[in-house]
């Protein structure tokens, strides 16, 4: 029996995941956590074979997102991690694999794809949601484990946008033209394979650019 710990800040999501995970009879949920602090405390006390965790779980002393993945990779290097997230885009996919995740599942497809991810990870393989694989094909593929790289100025623009500044305000603050800031924002989004401001802000938060 595969021992599984699940982490998500929404109780209803954890209930649904428990049902899906245990339906096949091969897995048993041995613990649940609602945030990073609770998860790390649980992992220190309860042995498990697989961790299924949300990407964005605000609150507590420990960081979520990529910070949490990196910490888990250092403290529990042999523990496979499946990431279930609503921020399912190529930037998240590549950066999550680069930070140690073994699978990434879009939350809106988790009931169908979570068992597939578990099976793949247990076989020593990686897994990505079908929607993400389609995005990779459209973007021209590439190494999905390679974390996207932004220039210093692009990171600066993304960070300032995510902190609430407009393109015009950023241009005035850093003494660049509005068209230059717009171009740097556009280039950053292309590098990250992100098409919406919501996904861009989510990436910036997960990457630790903003609190």
Automatic annotation (TrEMBL):
Q: Where is the HTH luxR-type domain?
A: 143-208
Organism superkingdom: Bacteria
Residues that bear 4-aspartylphosphate: 54
Keyword entries, A-Z: DNA-binding, Phosphoprotein
Keyword Transport listed: no
The Response regulatory domain sits at 3-122
Q: Which residues cross the membrane?
A: none
**A Gene Ontology molecular-function term?**
DNA binding
Provide the GO biological process annotations: phosphorelay signal transduction system; regulation of DNA-templated transcription
Report what the protein is called: Transcriptional regulatory protein RcsB
Give the encoding gene's name.
rcsB_1
């Amino acid at each position: 029996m595969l021992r599984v710990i699940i982490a998500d800040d929404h109780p209803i999501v954890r209930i649904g995941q428990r049902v899906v995970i245990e339906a096949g009879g091969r897995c048993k949920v041995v613990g649940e956590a609602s945030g990073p602090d609770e998860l790390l405390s649980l992992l220190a006390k309860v042995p498990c074979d697989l961790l299924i965790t949300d990407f964005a779980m605000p609150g507590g002393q420990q960081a979520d997102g990529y910070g949490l993945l990196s910490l888990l990779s250092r403290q529990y290097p042999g523990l496979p991690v499946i990431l279930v997230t609503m921020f399912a885009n190529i930037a998240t996919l590549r950066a999550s694999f680069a930070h140690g995740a073994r699978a990434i599942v879009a939350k809106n497809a988790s009931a169908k794809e979570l068992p597939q991810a578990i099976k793949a990870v247990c076989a020593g393989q990686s897994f990505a949601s079908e929607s993400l694989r389609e995005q990779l094909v459209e973007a021209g593929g590439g190494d999905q484990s390679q974390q996207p790289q932004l220039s210093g100025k692009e990171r600066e623009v993304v960070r300032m946008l995510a902190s609430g500044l407009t393109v015009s305000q950023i241009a005035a603050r850093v003494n660049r033209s509005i068209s230059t800031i717009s171009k740097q924002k556009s280039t950053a989004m292309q590098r990250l394979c992100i098409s919406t401001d919501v996904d861009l802000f989510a990436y910036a938060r997960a990457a630790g650019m903003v609190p």
